[in-house]
Amino acid sequence: QVQLVESGGGSVQPGGSLTLTCTASDKIFNIYTMAWYRQAPGKQRELVADISSSGRPTIRDSVKGRFTISRDGAKKTVYLQMNSLKPDDTAVYYCNRPNSMVPWGQGTQVTVSS
What we know:
The chain has strands at about 5, 10, 20-25, 35-40, 45-50, 55-60, 65-70, 75-80, 90-95, 110. The chain is mainly beta.
């Protein structure tokens, strides 16, 4: 079964940076758009950014200018570079293929607090 494994989360102060990594177990993911999502406590999961198979990114307005999404096909990996982090960015971050039945991974916790 296809698996997605997220890593790179942690606790940082406001203004800090983190880079999240999502690795797929199957190279077939290289032909699909991949996305990062996040879910804050008590809120619904929301799309943060996605990237097409050709590398074209789409970034949510609330994080535009602070977050960057990229991918490395050879490593079957999608990255989310997060800069100028704010407390509102605190959430569990997940990656997945949009509108698919791929099982969600365990996510990686990002906590932004002073």
